[in-house]
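Try this one yourself first.
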């Protein structure tokens, strides 16, 4: 008797389709269960091929995980870009620069809440070294050609250009902003804020991002 829970399989692939099918399966696994769910054997089962067929495209579990991680980073970048794009209609360059910076944090936190599996995969697959080139060339980048960290840096530079952030205070600002926002994301996903509803999460996100922005721009006492 057929197993009704079995995923449909394909018996043949056109040239070049198998890698995409395996990657799509890996991304679906990450979306469902985070990096620990990305298993090469399960990806091949979902793609409808025998495990040995995958090795031409992904030589190991880690190679597949890195490719999935790149997609997760790209999706995060695009979520941030959507927030930044919404600020482009603002005519005042100073207001636009501040809104774009805040958009990075808000997009980051919104993505973490809506795509927890992909978010965890983006950063838990392996340590994210900002000095390394993103894996798989442009695969980890958004439509702008920037990855999430580069988008943050770009908006900080924009605040310098707009005369909001003194150049002397620019170095290292990305790490201060990133650590605060990422910490909030982890509290929402795995910490004491995980039971908070969407409205509560959004309110805290807006307060946090405003706090970070005001802290960076505040005059020294």
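Now uncover the answer:
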């Amino acid at each position: 008797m057929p197993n009704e829970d079995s995923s449909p399989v394909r018996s043949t692939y056109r040239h070049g389709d198998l890698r995409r099918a395996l990657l799509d399966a890996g991304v679906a696994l990450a979306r469902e269960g985070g990096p620990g769910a990305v298993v090469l054997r399960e990806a091949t089962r979902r793609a409808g091929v025998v495990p040995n067929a995958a090795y031409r495209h992904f030589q190991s579990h880690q190679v597949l995980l890195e490719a999935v991680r790149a997609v997760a980073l790209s999706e995060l970048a695009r979520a941030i870009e959507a927030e930044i794009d919404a600020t482009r209609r603002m005519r005042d360059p100073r207001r636009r620069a501040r809104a774009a910076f805040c958009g990075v944090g808000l997009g980051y936190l919104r993505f973490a809440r809506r795509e927890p599996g992909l978010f965890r995969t983006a950063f838990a697959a392996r340590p994210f070294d900002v000095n390394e080139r993103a894996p798989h060339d442009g695969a980890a980048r958004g439509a702008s050609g920037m990855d999430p960290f580069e988008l943050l840096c770009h908006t900080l530079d924009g605040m310098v250009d707009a005369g909001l952030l003194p150049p002397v205070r620019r170095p290292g600002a990305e790490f201060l902003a990133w650590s605060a926002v990422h910490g909030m994301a982890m509290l929402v996903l795995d910490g004491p804020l995980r039971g908070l509803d969407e409205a509560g999460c959004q309110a805290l996100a807006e307060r946090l991002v405003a706090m970070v922005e005001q802290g960076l721009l505040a005059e020294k006492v």
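Discussion: The chain has two domains: 17-61, 71-217. The chain has eight helices and no strands.
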